[in-house]
């Protein structure tokens, strides 16, 4: 159903009708913020039919961006082309494709999505003597801290105390060396995208003015999740205190402090822009029983937005809140299973089990499988799992970046997994040098000696090496892989292949819709890298998620387990003190407000042999005394 402006409540409508100047929309769980944001953008488009400016909408997930784009397309039709809805990283990628040459980047840069590849890069630099690095893993953590806090090498001394000059200089050398190596190899990781975008906009005023002229209105969803690096990019895109900046946020849902999110960000926003504030306390998702305990819980967090209104349930469905305790975690799991078993199989997709840590979910999944329940731990996969799809993917990547040894290594590894015969990157490189051909041609020459890979190699030689017709190459690969994946007994040889293929086709469709059917290979690969590869789950599957992966979802039946001290809140949060406990409280607030009908809470007196007390959050919700 398409939501129209007439369907909004008074607060929502006031926000959707907003026009000029900065606005902060404080939107609680289930408050219809996505509808407000999309209708606000649609209004801007509808009310400026003869204008050429575009609207920039920044979200935190590709899924959210695509959903909003679809809604706006329904509302505005062809005019939706005036809207750029994307993640922060996708925006940075697009900008660096156009203007990265000022920083030494070529438009066809590769995107590194795996930390193992980043560690390997630092390891190579250490082994070659290029940098003095004792521990690449520790160095990478420090680099990521600089990324998330928007700290440049020149700004680093401000973050070291007197007497730590040598440590500071050492980290400066590592950071500068790492960044230089990325540019030299024409690669970027997620942190460097933000770093170089900030550098580009700050050092090239002409480009910054062009961006501001094109994007006269900027909308940001889930602003509370921004880290300082993202905020600094935003400040360069919309620098004036009177900028048309429309921000949707909820300070009660700041749960990504490990990734640089901070309650201070909303205070910075207020200081820098002095925005008008509209609150959306109405909750259309959660029943009154859930909203009531959520209000009680979050009220224990000091420092929330001033005059923050309590949530008010608008859900007319009668809900339930149940709390149970058990002697140990095994009993807790057994009871959880007995709660879910009566639910018909084709309705178990309505069930979400939330735990604070993955450790609990692993044990729950194993127990459910033993009892014959289908259950999956949902995570945000950034890479493909099937060797078949990896083989095709890395062939495309090597076609795009012919000189990348790391990509050639991955291509050869995927070929070895498919063929069960070792394909050596060293042999491929040697053949390429001796015969003066590209490494990809040399790879396909090796692959052609295998009966299994021979059709794949033939397609690669013709469609990648000879003509760079990558869409036809992909089509040919899937035709071959479909045959390789099924045995004479109709069993799947590669368990992840079907899901990976579905993801590929879905993401490819979205990319072509955004960038056109003739999108170039390097843009296609960059956007593919930025898109998470979520596994498709069946209707009889119970979803198991941590709080962080469950943010933004809603289910009829939500089961929050492990509500014991040192589990939720975690041991580390308790040790760190009040600031960390506040974030744990927000985690709990997010967890319980995923429920649109029934909420089941549980805790045990013992986990993994250690005695535990009930979580303080149960007292704060008013569900336990003392």
UniProtKB/TrEMBL annotation:
It holds the Pfam family UvrD-helicase. Residues 6-287 form the UvrD-like helicase ATP-binding domain. It catalyses: Couples ATP hydrolysis with the unwinding of duplex DNA by translocating in the 3'-5' direction; ATP + H2O = ADP + phosphate + H(+). Gene3D superfamilies: 1.10.10.160, P-loop containing nucleotide triphosphate hydrolases, PCRA, domain 4. Transmembrane segments: none annotated. Its EC number is 5.6.2.4. SUPFAM superfamilies: P-loop containing nucleoside triphosphate hydrolases. Belongs to the helicase family. UvrD subfamily. This is DNA 3'-5' helicase. It comes from Pelodictyon luteolum.
């Amino acid at each position: 159903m398409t939501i129209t402006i007439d369907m909004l409540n008074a607060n929502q409508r006031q926000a959707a009708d907003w026009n000029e100047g900065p606005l902060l929309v404080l939107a609680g769980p289930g408050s219809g913020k996505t509808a407000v944001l999309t209708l606000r953008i649609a209004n801007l488009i509808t009310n400026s039919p003869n204008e050429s400016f575009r609207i920039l909408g920044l979200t935190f997930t590709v899924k959210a961006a695509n959903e909003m784009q679809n809604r706006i397309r329904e509302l505005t039709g062809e005019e939706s082309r005036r809207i750029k809805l994307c993640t922060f990283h996708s925006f940075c990628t697009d900008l660096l494709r156009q203007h990265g040459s000022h920083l030494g980047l070529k438009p066809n840069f590769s995107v590194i999505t795996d930390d193992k590849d980043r560690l390997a890069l630092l390891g190579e630099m250490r082994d070659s003597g290029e940098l003095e690095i004792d521990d690449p893993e520790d160095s990478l953590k420090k680099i990521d801290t600089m990324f998330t806090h928007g700290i440049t090498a020149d700004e680093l001394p401000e973050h070291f105390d007197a007497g730590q000059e040598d440590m500071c200089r050492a980290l400066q050398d590592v950071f500068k060396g790492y960044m230089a190596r990325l540019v030299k190899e024409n690669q970027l990781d997620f942190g460097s995208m933000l770093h170089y975008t900030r550098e580009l906009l700050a050092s090239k005023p002409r480009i910054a003015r062009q961006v501001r002229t094109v994007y006269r209105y900027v909308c940001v969803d889930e602003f509370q999740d921004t880290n300082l690096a993202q905020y600094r990019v935003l400040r360069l895109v919309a620098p004036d205190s009177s900028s048309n900046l429309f921000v949707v946020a909820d300070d009660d849902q700041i749960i990504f402090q490990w990734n640089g999110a901070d309650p201070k960000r909303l205070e910075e926003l207020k200081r820098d822009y002095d925005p008008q504030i509209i609150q959306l306390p109405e909750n259309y998702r959660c029943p009154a029983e859930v909203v009531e305990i959520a209000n009680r819980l979050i009220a224990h967090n000091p420092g929330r937005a001033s005059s923050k209104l309590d949530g008010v349930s608008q859900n007319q469905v009668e809900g339930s809140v149940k709390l149970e305790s058990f002697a140990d975690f095994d009993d807790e799991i057994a009871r959880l299973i007995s709660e879910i078993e009566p639910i018909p199989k084709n309705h178990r997709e309505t069930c979400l089990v939330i735990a604070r840590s993955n450790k609990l979910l692993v044990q729950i999944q194993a127990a459910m499988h033993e009892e014959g329940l289908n259950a999956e731990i949902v995570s945000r996969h950034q890479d493909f799992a099937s060797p078949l799809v990896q083989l095709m993917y890395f062939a495309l990547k090597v076609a795009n970046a012919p000189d990348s040894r790391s990509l050639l290594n991955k291509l050869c590894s995927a070929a070895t997994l498919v063929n069960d015969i070792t394909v050596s990157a060293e042999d491929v490189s040697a053949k390429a040098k001796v015969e003066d051909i590209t490494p990809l041609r040399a790879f396909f020459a090796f692959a052609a000696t295998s009966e299994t890979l021979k059709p794949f190699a033939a397609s690669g030689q013709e469609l990648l090496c000879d003509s760079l017709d990558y869409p036809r190459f992909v089509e040919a690969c899937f035709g071959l892989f479909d045959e390789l994946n099924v045995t004479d007994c109709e069993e799947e040889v590669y368990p992840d292949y079907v899901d990976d293929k579905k993801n590929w086709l879905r993401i490819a469709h979205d990319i072509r819709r955004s960038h056109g059917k003739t999108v170039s290979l390097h843009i296609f690969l960059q956007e593919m890298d930025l898109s998470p590869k979520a596994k498709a789950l069946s209707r009889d599957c119970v979803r198991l998620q941590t709080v962080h992966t469950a943010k933004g979802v809603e289910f009829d039946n939500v089961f929050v387990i492990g509500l014991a001290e040192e589990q939720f809140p975690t041991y580390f949060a308790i040790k760190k003190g009040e600031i960390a406990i506040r974030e744990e409280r927000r985690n709990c607030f997010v967890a319980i407000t995923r429920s649109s009908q029934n909420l089941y809470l549980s805790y045990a007196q013992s986990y993994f042999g250690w005695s535990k007390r009930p979580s303080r959050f149960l007292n704060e919700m008013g569900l336990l005394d003392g």
